[in-house]
Model the fold of this input.
Amino acid sequence: IAVPSLSTTAYKAPQITGVTTPNLAADAKGISTAGGDDIKFTGLDFGTAPTFLQPSLGNVEYANALGTAAILLAHSCVAASNNEVNCKTNPGTGDSLQFRLMTGGQSSNIFDSNVGYAPPTITALSNSGEVSVVLSKLLTIGEQEITITGTNFGPLGTAVGATYGNGGDKTYTATACAITTAHTEIRCKTTSGNGF
Done:
């Protein structure tokens, strides 16, 4: 009768060596804050496809700074091989994201990448309050509500802010800014000021 060994062994821990976004348009400045973009991880010892079918066995987490920022989990991850995992991004914000892959209960290195969410872009400004606002003639007392429309503002609840001014010596910080439509709309109030 064989006696069970008290020695233990383990597979090598996974190691990320590269992170890319293979399907982004050439002129894209980053992944969409709405999520859903393809992201590809290359490295060593990722395991096999079934590993990523159960998030408790395999997943990819990322953040601006893993350990100090809110962690996001990539989704729909599939191990294409022992050296490649493909996932989809979740909604979020941030630049120069850090990634960590977990497979079979083992965590990889933290990989510092050049991958980030696209910066916000403003496409329109409009009145959103009850009082009609002529954007070129704001009241000096402030408190006028302005709607900022654009792209890549982030999910609901993302902390946002806005500044405005004459492009020279007058700059003001809007107040009470909040995302009112995920990724595409922010509402703020003007602050007291003068000039053009």
Observations:
- The chain is about 0% helix and 40% strand.
- The chain has a mean pLDDT of 86.
- The first strand starts at residue 15 and ends at 20.
- The two ends are 91 Å apart (CA to CA).
